[in-house]
Write a structure and sequence with these properties.
Layout: E1 2-3, H1 4-12, E2 16-20, E3 28-29, E4 32-34, E5 47-49, H2 56-65, E6 70-74, H3 81-89, E7 93-97, H4 103-115, H5 129-140, E8 144-148, E9 153-156, H6 165-173, H7 178-187, H8 189-195, E10 200-202, E11 213-220, E12 223-231, H9 238-278, H10 283-289, E13 297-305, H11 311-320, E14 331-335, E15 338-344, H12 350-361, E16 368-373, H13 382-394, E17 405-406, H14 407-423, H15 433-444, H16 448-457, H17 462-469, H18 473-486, H19 494-506
Parallel strand pairs: 4-5, 5-6, 6-7, 16-17
Antiparallel strand pairs: 1-3, 2-7, 8-9, 8-12, 10-11, 11-12, 13-15, 13-16, 14-15
Helix pairs in contact: 2-3, 5-9, 9-10, 13-14, 16-17, 16-18, 16-19, 17-18
Length: 514
């Protein structure tokens, strides 16, 4: 939204001059329309760009049909008396654009001011979708909700008089309830939205707490961006139908500009996050640029999987970066096939688990997630936090289920995995007590290594080791004696015992009853 006075002041710097009717300079402009000579139906918008119209009087007539507050005409001639009189009669401000200024330049400025007249605290793009919903509600005389292609609520009009239960649940839950969405699916509403720009009346459904409503697709070219819903007991008349269709067109322009702005912010945000994850001497300054608090953060590493390659991780990345920067708790980047998020989080990992749950709820049901959560880290320690998150994520390859792996709870498994990795650097010893016992077990079908592993984990307690193995303590004692005859164990040496326990652990030896 922008006031007419500000629009006039800004356009004055582009060689635009006022030809007539300066009353109502405090008028608020919420929408933009562009004259299309190829269509008979007039566009509706507070600001009208009369592209291809040479006569001032014709431009004002189009502005009257479009219910505009300001009309822009590109001409080198002054406005005619009849055009100025007509503009004054209908309280339309006529602005004349210098022919040396292209329509593309003027359109860019007008769309930017009207649709992005109010910016977010982060300086990013449009935040006036709610005001646009109010404008559509005034034009059609009914409450409005604007939803994305997944039936999530993006904005709604401030007046929701006589809202039915289904509508209230949609607004409070920020998405269309499952049973209502299933009803729309059965009635072919989403099929219609995918194929047609014509508004569709949806009859009431008392069993679902829903009265009648009309919906129009929000589309950019062939891409469906979302929909605009109007509360209506009966089908809309021609005038309100046109107002809804034009409102949906304006919403599409708004969302496209928002997408461009979002893509730019994602790029900048992603580059800053990568700096922190890879290490930078200016970590505290980068944290400030991202708008994050100067405290400990956790690195969350996330991978998403579905039948279509790369689609799931892109969905997860878009979901993680949806919303204006200042309204999101973390900052995110996409690196390869992994989404990394920095989340302000101290010793309690609950906020990280909550963030992951919220992200998962916003994804389609067929998408599965694998998530690793690093330990709390100061800004300068975030590279270590990333490594911990990656290592936690890697544990999913040895686990069943999709429960997020947190470093705080899984550090022991991660340490053993590090030892396994380190062990692969050199050759595994072909001699020594473990190798000799392994050869004996293979030759004699014995269980000496299993017994040694149990005894070491029990810290030399025969009863505990025997309980784990399911044998009598004397059996453990006999096997230990047999081991000393086969190999030089030196069980009285703490360093030898630790080395053997590590070797057995990273070799993935398991204790089975025998």
């Amino acid at each position: 939204m922008v006031r007419l006075d500000r629009l006039i002041n800004v356009l004055g710097g582009y060689g635009v001059r006022v030809a007539g009717h300066l009353g109502g300079r405090d008028a608020e402009l919420h929408s933009v329309a562009m004259h299309d000579p190829a269509t008979d139906s007039p566009s509706v918008g507070d600001a009208l760009l009369t592209v291809g119209v040479p006569e001032p009087a014709h431009a004002v007539e189009l502005g009257i049909a479009a219910r505009s507050r300001v009309v822009l005409l590109r001409t080198g001639e002054p406005g005619t008396e009849d055009a100025l009189a007509l503009a004054k009669e209908h309280e339309i401000c006529l602005l004349l654009v210098d022919p040396r200024v292209s329509w593309s330049q003027i359109a860019s400025v007008v769309y930017g001011l009207v649709l992005e007249g109010r910016e977010t605290e982060a300086g990013r793009g449009p935040s006036d979708l709610f005001t646009l919903a109010d404008s559509i509600a005034i034009a059609v005389g009914a409450p409005v909700t604007i939803e994305d292609q997944l039936s999530r609520v993006m904005a709604y009009s401030s007046v929701q008089r006589d809202a039915d239960p289904a509508r209230l649940d949609t607004i409070l839950g920020r998405r269309v309830p499952g049973p209502v969405r299933a009803l729309f699916e059965r009635r072919g509403v989403f099929t219609h939205l995918a194929a047609s720009d014509e508004p569709l009346f949806v009859a009431d459904a008392p069993d679902h707490g829903m009265r009648g409503r009309t919906v129009a697709a929000v589309r950019a070219g062939r891409e469906l961006l979302g929909s605009v819903w109007i509360a209506s007991e009966t089908p809309l008349d021609a005038g309100r139908t046109r107002a809804l269709a034009d409102g949906a067109h304006t919403v599409a322009l708004h969302l496209l500009r928002s997408r461009v702005s979002a893509d730019l912010e994602r790029q900048v945000e992603g580059e800053l996050v990568i700096q922190l994850l890879e290490g930078t001497p200016d970590a505290a300054a980068v944290i400030g640029k991202l708008g994050l608090p100067p405290r400990k953060h956790r690195v969350i590493a996330l991978q998403a999987h579905t039948s279509e390659r790369n689609a799931a991780v892109l969905l997860a990345f878009e979901r993680a970066t949806t919303g204006f920067g200042w309204s999101r708790p973390g900052r995110t980047t996409l690196f390869g096939n992994t989404v990394y998020t920095l989340l302000p989080c101290d010793d309690d990992p609950a906020p990280a688990f909550g963030w992951i749950s919220e992200l998962a709820r916003g994804l389609p049901g067929h998408v599965s997630l694998a998530v690793g959560i690093g330990a709390p880290a100061d800004p300068g320690e975030l590279p270590a936090g990333r490594k911990e998150a990656d290592e936690s994520l890697a544990l999913h390859t040895t686990r069943t289920g999709t429960t997020p792996v947190c470093y705080d709870e899984s550090w022991d498994e991660i340490l053993l995995q590090r030892l396994r990795t380190a062990a692969t650097v050199g050759r595994i010893p072909s001699r020594g007590p473990i190798a000799e016992l392994a050869r004996y077990d293979e030759t004699h079908s014995a269980r000496l290594l299993t017994t040694l592993h149990a005894w070491l984990e029990a810290q030399g307690d025969l009863a505990t080791a025997a309980g784990r193995l399911g044998v009598h303590p004397n059996t453990v004692r006999y096997r230990l004696k047999k081991m000393t005859e086969i190999a030089d164990l030196r069980l009285d040496d703490p360093r030898k015992r630790l080395a053997m326990l590590i070797t057995l652990a990273i070799g993935d030896h398991t204790v089975s009853p025998q």
